[in-house]
Amino acid sequence: MKKLFIVTGEHSGDMHAANVVRELKKINSDIQIEAIGGVNLKSENVKLFSDHSKMSAVGLSPQIIINHIKLGKNLVDYLLNDYKPDAVLLIDYGAFNLKIAKYLKANGIKTLYYIPPQVWASRKYRINKIKKYIDKVFCIFPFEKEMYDKYGIDNVYVGHPLVKQLPEKANREEFFIKYGLDVNKKLVSIFPGSRVFELKFLMDVFKKTAKYLKDTDIKIIKGDNQALLSVSDALILASGTVALEAALYQTPMIIAYRGPLFFYLVYLLVRCIDKASLPNIITGKDLVPEFIQFNVRAEKIGYEIEKMLYQNEYRNDKIQGLGTVKDLLTDKYSAFEVASEINKVLS
To answer: Which of 90, 131, 242, 320 has the fewest CB atoms inside 10 Å of its own CB, making it the most exposed?
Structure first.
């Protein structure tokens, strides 16, 4: 029986991994799978070497660093001396996974990478590590394949997981009734990010923006993010995957992001492209207005949102432009494509 080990670092990676496992079992049930993961992999009856409790912490405190080092050492020892997998699938979580890949490669274990580090956005030097330690990369963006081909790295484009995983657009009227919203009013939704520093540096400006928009009724909605993205008239977002989700729903949006000045200066040094939001990066166009660092100002954001709400031609141009994002990502079912490639490797 062939053995596969999967390494994920947080909830989204665990979810993507579980989808791959589900598809892989349909193709070949004679594979033993273990992982570092969470509830999603566990629900697929995958034996967990460890959960995410020591991996998903944010920051660079001495204890967090020590936890990662210990986990990495224990994992490598287990894989090399006990489990001895035929292949290891790394998912996202670049800093940790590339270090693990170094030891796996040195000991002849095939290393596969799904949702690889975004070297096209920053820290491009990491591509040399990928070339050295990774046997095959599963690209989720079409432009990634072009880059890996250029560097002579074995890769395959599998499509973006969100394209098939994102729920259908919610029914606007039902959503408004559910949360006591006025169906006759425009809905502007704010997604300030989940990290503490994002809330610290963005939330006050977002609140001021809400006041700028006047006659704004503010309501907090929890746990229904994708439905909210799909029924909103416009969105104010912190940069991240949420912008791609919004684009797939073709909801007009702005992106705002700022942090400590030191980190912003570091970002300017390590970035490889001058666009911050995924819809703009994917299309190579300025579909989504970006307000970064010193431009994160309530009046600027508010003015842009008003244009999206009330200038019909401008609004329609944004909606049509966002429609091209899904076309560029194709309709591949990413989990199935990855599962098929893993099965080839293990055969």
So the answer is: 320
CA distance 234 to 309: 7
DSSP letter at 240 equals S
- What does DSSP assign to residue 169? P
**CATH number assigned to the domain covering 172-329:** 3.40.50.2000
Class of the CATH-defined domain 2-159+332-346: alpha beta
* Order of all β-strands in the sheet with 290-292: 188-191, 234-238, 253-257, 290-292
Cα–Cα distance between 239 and 328 in angstroms, integer? Answer: 20
- Pairing state of beta strands 155-157 and 188-191? unpaired
Enumerate residue ranges in the chain where pLDDT < 50: none
pLDDT, tens digit, 9 for 90 and up, residues 185-239: 999 999 987 666 566 778 899 999 998 887 677 888 988 999 999 999 999 998 7
Same fold, 2-159+332-346 and 172-329: yes
Task: Give the per-residue pLDDT at 166.
Answer: 92
Q: What is the pLDDT of residue 274?
A: 80
State the amino acid at position 97 in one-letter form: N
Name the β-bridge partners of 33: 4
Assigned token pair, 247: 């684009």
User: Which of 217, 297, 200 has the alpha carbon at shortest distance from 256?
Assistant: 297
Q: Where along the chain do its domains lie? A: 2-159+332-346, 172-329
